Amino acid sequence: MAEPYLSHPVRHIRDDPIADESASLVVELAADEHYDDLVATVANLDGSVDRDLGFSSHLVTLPQTAVADLCSLDFLDRVETADTISLGVEPDATEGVGDDE
Predict the structure, then answer these.
(1) Structure pTM?
(2) Which domain holds residue 69?
C-alpha cells in the first residue's frame, strides 16, 4: 500500500516535533475496517481518537513526538492538521461586532 498523503504542517511536525506538545490531526483511513487498528495504535501512542468526522475520517489527538509513528501506518490515506480542515465548528463571527461600550 502507498504511503498516506501528509500535509506540509504534518510533515513538519513529523520531522521536527516539539516535546510536551500535542497535535490535533484529521486522519483518513484507507477502509473503515481499520478503525479498531487506529484506536489501538493511537492509544498505544498515548493519544485518543476524539471524534468520527464521517467519510472514514477521524479527529485524533496525540503527542507531537508520536506523529511519525502514526504517519507510518499503512492503513491511512491521508493525515492533515485539524486546523487545516474545517470541522464544522466555527466561533460566532458576529460576537462583539457593533457592541458599543
Answers:
(1) 0.79
(2) 5-85
Counting the structural domains of the chain, the total is: 1
Q: Would you say residue 29 has pLDDT above 50? A: yes
Residue 37 lies in a domain: yes
3-state SS of the chain is CCCCEECHHHHHHHHCCCCCCEEEEEEEECCHHHHHHHHHHHHHCCCEEEEEEECCEEEEEEEHHHHHHHHCCCCEEEEEECCCCCCCCCCCCCCCCCCCC
Q: 91 lies in a domain?
A: no
Q: What is the mean pLDDT of the chain?
A: 87
Instruction: Report the CATH number that the domain containing residue 66 is assigned in CATH.
Output: 3.30.70.80
